[in-house]
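4.2 Preliminary Data

To establish feasibility before requesting continued support, the project team ran the inverse folding procedure on a target of 150 residues. The structure was first converted into the token representation described in Section 3, and no sequence information of any kind was made available to the design step. The complete token record follows.
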């Protein structure tokens, strides 16, 4: 094998070995999840690679730190904003090259709650807050929000 062929061979092995490690699940993070769908702005369904299908297929995730308007809300404004939040989340997640779940934990009602990072730089919660389609939420009692004024 020539010198250049050896270098390319070694670089190929290093690149191949580095990628799976970058997407290996850890205790509180699941990198490289595959987006399936989202119910609304703050609830999505994913497949988690590297996790047994019983635990890693079609898993519902609640976005940490925010609450979005309810699809089945009472007011017309809330329903309209809910559709916009769902649409924005879908647009960001469906076009993402990579989605990571960080700071994964069990939340209220034993749901899986996580920070959702898109393409290693966009935080889904921050994008929804920035567009006034969510408010900060710590899991306590929900305040009454007038979505018409947001």
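Position-by-position output of the design step:
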């Amino acid at each position: 094998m020539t010198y250049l062929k050896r270098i390319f061979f070694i670089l190929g092995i290093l690149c191949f070995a580095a990628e799976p490690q970058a997407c290996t699940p850890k205790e509180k993070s699941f990198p490289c999840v595959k987006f399936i769908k989202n119910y609304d702005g703050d609830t999505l369904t994913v497949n988690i690679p590297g996790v047994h299908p019983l635990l890693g297929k079609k898993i519902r995730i609640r976005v940490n730190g925010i609450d979005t308007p309810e699809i089945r809300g009472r007011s017309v404004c809330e329903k309209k904003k809910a559709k916009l939040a769902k649409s924005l989340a879908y647009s960001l997640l469906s076009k993402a090259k990579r989605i990571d779940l960080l700071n994964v934990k069990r939340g209220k009602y034993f749901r899986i709650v996580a920070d959702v990072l898109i393409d290693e730089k966009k935080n889904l919660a921050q994008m929804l807050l920035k567009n006034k389609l969510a408010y900060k939420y710590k899991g306590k009692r929900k305040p009454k929000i007038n979505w018409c004024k947001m």
